[in-house]
Write a structure and sequence with these properties.
Elements lengths: L5 H5 L10 H8 L1 H5 L6 H10 L31 H27 L5 H21 L4 E2 L6 E2 L2 H10 L2 H8 L2 H7 L4 H4 L9 H13 L5 H29 L15 E2 L2 E2 L8 H17 L11 H30 L3 H19 L3 H17 L3 H4 L5 H18 L8 H10 L1 E5 L4 E3 L7 E7 L2 E6 L6 E7 L4 E2 L1 H6 L6 E4 L3 E7 H10 L2 H12 L5 H31 L2 H9 L14 H8 L2 H9 L14 H8 L2 H9 L9 H10 L3 H9 L14 H7 L3 H9 L14 H8 L2 H15 L1
Antiparallel strand pairs: 1-2, 3-4, 5-12, 6-11, 7-10, 7-12, 8-9, 8-11
């Protein structure tokens, strides 16, 4: 009964391997088949024999079948195995026979003859075996798309769906009819067997998706089968209505009163079966065509009622056939678009020799798009952008809010992320991000389950890391830090994920950049304590430092450009105005050096440190003083700034040497000590005396400079003046000495 050990079936495919190789090779060679102008019927039936759905034989590294609910399930039938495919086509033949013969048996037979009875029993035995087989056939879960191989779940699913109808259809209703005293109500139970026609419709659906079979040919055959089967069933019912009248009143039936030429259908029950069936079929087809000649003429009330129902149904069927033919001409059906797209993809894969594994993965993903119809972009394309924004926020914002990576971020940032994400689906076994690749997409899991694993030092053994479920994110380390992806992400269940590209994320951070630091902190907090994550943490810290340096540069650039509103927006959205660049220069340093009072006032209002020093020991007040920006210097002094210079003596001495009287006045006015000494213990007054700078010496004395300090060589400023011989300068210093002594 085609039972097979599951472990044996696992060896037929691996991750991303797509299952049975021969079938995939046949599909990949579609161009070869299409290249022949007239394919033979033998090849066509060969393709039909090999036809089956795309193979998904996926096995995880732990040896379990994808979606396997219990390792103890010893015997299971995989729906993609070739044995089961043969069995499905064998049962399909019986389904075609049963679907055709059931109306015929109901209308033309009241008790089957022995030869047909034995054939009918053989068919019912085949369907009974199929019922048993169904209890061992694995199935794919609707939501997770995982292959469920638990006998209990398989049995529950089948018992809840088709079991009762299949079982009732297998009962020998003809024998029950004879045993029950030929009660007419029993014969109506035969119509239960028409449920087997569903197998035929499923077969045509598979053929429509099979790009190896001509789509136009498949659709035309399907439409012909639908029309002929409807007329066949109607013909059997027309004849059955005639047999419900007793033989004495057969003239009050459509066939009993029928005369074609000189031939009359009197005693029609004694006419040959084939002739009776052809007559009924002829009138059923002509009545359906409604050409105005040859239709059935109802004779009794029963026939009138059925003709009304039949003609009404004919209108619906005609519209269905006409609509399908129109769709074939304009090529607008969803299935045909799928086939055309699949054909183009296969041509591309054949031309570039992508390999069977990658080709199968692409085909499975395209098939998923067709089955799930997740084309939200095309659906919402004609809707105004404002409405699309609201839809995206309503659909995706609840998921974004719950992601730990975005914990603590502003509501505006969350809304922008929800607007920019794109929805995607992935099949079980697909690898979304491989270890070592640099990710330019950030993913958030909406539904489904994924696994995260990495390779050890020997680059062979896979190390399982963790499971990812709803509200999880992945790819964030590589995405944010521009480093290789540390882990491989693979799908375990059918997954619905939200994807955000790096360009959109960067544009959002340009506005909500303070949330970027929150995200990086969340990224650090979410890492477990092990060696690999410690390395990741160092990468994240380096990226944080880089981001902060870039942010400080943006603040300084805004201050340098005098862009008040840009600087204000940066600060209001969370930027720290105390951040310094690589030279430890803050925005206040830049604003003070430029003499920009508005920006300086803005920075002071936001609590910036007015006494911060840069790499060279310069404070904002010193920058303002150097630039001669008295207004800015006044603002800084009012804010509590003091002129603290690391080497005040050296600075003053240099200023005196440069003879920069204005700078000297400003620094002295802002409280610098005029007696500060340089490395030779020389004061600014020493330099002024030695250089015969009378005006500068006078300014220094007025500011409180002392004439008594001695330098490294024991000289005072007065000694330096006497050496120079400037009498006015000597007199000035002597007067100052007398004043300071007194």
């Amino acid at each position: 009964m085609m039972m097979m050990i599951q472990g044996r079936e696992r060896t037929r495919g691996g991750v991303g391997n797509g299952g049975d190789g021969s079938d995939e090779e046949e599909e990949l060679e579609v161009e070869k088949f299409r290249g022949e102008s007239k394919p033979s019927w033998k090849r066509l039936f060969g393709l039909l024999r090999m036809e089956s759905s795309i193979r998904d034989g996926i096995v995880f590294r732990d040896g379990s079948s994808l979606g396997q609910s219990s390792v103890s399930d010893a015997y299971i039938i995989r729906p993609d195995s070739w044995r089961y495919t043969v069995w499905v086509h064998f049962i399909l033949i019986w389904a075609v026979y049963s679907s055709f013969f059931t109306p015929l048996e109901f209308g033309f037979f009241r008790g089957l003859p022995e030869n047909l009875f034995l054939l009918d029993i053989a068919g019912q035995i085949a369907f009974l075996i199929d019922i048993v087989v169904h209890f061992f056939v694995a199935y794919r879960a609707t939501h997770s798309y995982r292959l469920v191989s638990s006998h209990k779940l398989i049995a529950i699913r089948y018992l809840k769906s088709r079991f009762l109808v299949d079982f009732l259809g297998c009962l020998p209703w003809d024998a029950i009819f004879k045993v029950s005293g030929r009660k007419e109500a029993v014969r109506y139970m035969l119509w239960i067997r028409l449920s087997r026609a569903k197998r035929v419709t499923e077969f045509f659906e598979r053929l429509e998706k099979d790009i190896r079979i001509n789509y136009l040919f498949t659709r035309i055959v399907k439409l012909l089968v639908v029309e002929l089967y409807c007329t066949h069933t109607a013909a059997c019912i027309f004849y059955y209505l005639a047999t419900t009248m007793p033989p004495s009143q057969e003239g009050y039936t459509w066939i009993g009163s029928l005369q074609m030429g000189d031939y009359r259908y009197t005693h029609f029950r004694e006419i040959d079966l084939w002739k009776r069936y052809i007559t009924s079929l002829y009138f059923a087809i002509v009545t359906m065509a409604t050409v105005g000649y040859g239709e059935i003429h109802a004779v009794n009330v029963r026939e009138m009622i059925f003709v009304m129902v039949y003609v009404s149904f004919d209108m619906i069927l005609g519209a269905y056939l006409l609509g399908n033919m129109t769709a074939l001409i304009v090529k607008g059906s969803k299935t045909e678009k799928f086939r055309d797209r699949m054909t183009d993809l296969i041509k591309y894969m054949n031309r570039n020799n992508l390999g069977k594994g990658m080709s199968n993965e692409i085909k499975r993903h395209l098939r998923l798009q067709y089955d799930r119809s997740y084309t939200e972009t095309s659906v919402l394309q004609e809707i105004p952008a404002s409405i699309r924004t609201k839809i995206s926020q309503k659909l995706y914002e609840p998921y974004i809010k719950e992601v730990s990576l975005f914990k603590g971020c502003s509501l505006g940032f969350i809304k922008q992320i929800a607007i920019r994400v794109h929805e995607e689906y992935f099949l079980p076994g697909e690898v979304i991000i491989e270890q070592g690749h640099v990710a330019d997409q950030l993913y958030v899991v909406c539904h489904g389950e994924l696994e995260e694993f990495g390779r050890g030092e020997n680059d062979r053994a896979e190390e399982f890391i963790k499971r990812l479920q709803t509200y999880s994110s992945f790819g964030e380390v590589s995405f944010l830090c521009n480093t290789p992806q540390p882990y491989t992400i693979r799908v375990r269940e059918l997954c619905r994920v939200l994807r955000l590209d790096k360009q959109s994320f960067t544009e959002i951070l340009d506005i909500y950049f303070s949330d970027g630091r929150i995200i990086l902190n969340n990224l650090l907090e979410g890492k477990d304590a092990n060696l690999r994550n410690e390395l990741l943490e160092s990468d994240v810290i380096l990226y944080i430092e880089k981001s902060e340096s870039e942010l400080a540069m943006r603040l300084n650039c805004a201050a340098f450009d005098g862009d008040y509103y840009r600087l204000k927006r940066l600060i209001e959205t969370g930027a720290d105005p105390n951040k310094a660049d690589y030279d430890r220069r803050s925005p206040l340093h830049v604003a003070a050096s430029k003499g920009d009072g508005d920006i300086s006032q803005l920075l002071i209002e936001h609590g910036v440190d007015v006494n911060i020093s840069d790499k060279f020991g310069n404070t904002p007040l010193l920058e303002a003083v150097k630039g001669g920006h008295d207004e800015v210097a006044s603002l800084l002094v009012k804010a509590g700034a003091s002129l603290a210079i690391d080497d005040a003596g050296g600075f003053l001495c240099t200023t005196v040497v440069k003879r920069d009287l204005n700078l000297l006045k400003r620094v002295l006015a802002n409280g610098i000590n005029p007696n500060a000494k340089n490395f030779d213990y020389r004061t600014p007054l020493h330099i002024a005396a030695s250089e015969d700078l009378h005006s500068i010496a006078s300014l220094l004395i007025e500011a409180g400079a002392s004439v008594f300090p001695k330098d490294r060589w024991g000289n005072t400023p007065l000694d330096e003046a006497r050496i120079g011989g400037n009498k006015d300068l000597i007199k000035l210093l002597e007067v100052a000495r007398a004043s300071q002594i007194g």
